[in-house]
Design goal:
Elements: E1 5-10, H1 14-24, E2 30-36, H2 42-49, E3 53-57, H3 65-73, E4 80-85, H4 90-98, E5 103-106, H5 111-122, H6 130-147, H7 152-165, H8 170-180, H9 185-192, H10 196-210, H11 215-224
Parallel strand pairs: 1-2, 1-3, 3-4, 4-5
Helix pairs in contact: 3-4, 4-6, 7-11, 8-11, 9-10
Keywords: DNA-binding, Phosphoprotein, Transcription, Transcription regulation
Domain HTH luxR-type: 161-226
Pfam families: GerE, Response_reg
């Protein structure tokens, strides 16, 4: 894209919005184009402000961030969405990622990491922290066991994921596993002895073959298949 990355912040907490405004106001390549205090304000704000990236809170009083994310991702040429969360909403984060969010950040993420995350997402490289993802998956699984939920849905997802991944070449499976580990393109290129351009080409083919929208959804399939 040309020009600075346009960012919209959506959060019902004015202190969080103010803190994010300070964080995003420093770098010259990022610009905070607006704020919204609830999910029902998002469609109009996106139409009016044309952001490249939306930082979306999950819990809001009228329309939650999950619903707002699902609505945004159904639009033509939608902005990227990064959900803001705490660990008390792990299962909701999974729903957001499956809906097409480009990743998630914890609200106590250091300012420099938030800036880096917005840049990466705007460049088409969604955020997936391998450490946070492992904790997230484990937390959801523990919650299901405590609630007495049948493990069958997880097994169904595993079978479906394996079926999709079986259509990949061995090299594409290696790239998919690396994406599932949350590695950026440069690290994948180094680890698999290929150029960054080749990695990008493989990732593009993965999206097409697997029928998904972004790298986060590739990583979720890899985790569903228990390949990492």
């Amino acid at each position: 894209m040309s020009g600075p990355v346009r960012v919209l912040v959506v959060d019902d907490d004015p202190l969080v919005r103010a803190a994010l405004a300070m964080v995003l106001g420093g770098p010259g390549d990022l610009v905070l184009v607006g704020e919204a205090s609830d999910g029902d304000e998002v469609p109009a704000a996106v139409d009016r402000l044309a952001p490249h990236v939306v930082l979306m809170d999950i819990r809001m009083p009228r329309v939650d961030g999950l619903t707002a994310t699902e609505q945004l991702r159904r639009r033509p040429d939608p902005p990227e969405v990064v959900v803001l969360t705490t660990f008390d909403a792990d299962d909701q984060v999974l729903r957001a990622l499956r809906a097409g969010a480009s990743g998630f950040l914890l609200k106590d993420t250091p300012p420099a990491d938030i800036v880096a995350a917005v840049r990466r997402v705007a460049a088409g490289e969604p955020i997936l922290s391998p450490t946070v993802t492992r904790r997230l998956m484990a937390h959801v699984a523990d919650g299901e066991r405590r609630a007495g939920v049948s493990p069958d849905p997880a097994q169904v997802r595993r079978t479906q994921a394996l079926g999709l991944l079986d259509q990949l070449s061995e090299r594409e499976r290696e790239v998919a596993r690396a994406v599932g580990q949350g590695l950026p393109n440069a690290q994948i290129a180094t680890d698999l002895y290929m150029s960054v351009a080749t990695v990008k080409a493989h990732v593009s083919r993965l999206l097409t073959k697997l029928g998904v929208e972004n790298r986060v959804q590739v990583a979720l399939l890899v985790h569903d298949a228990e390949l990492v």
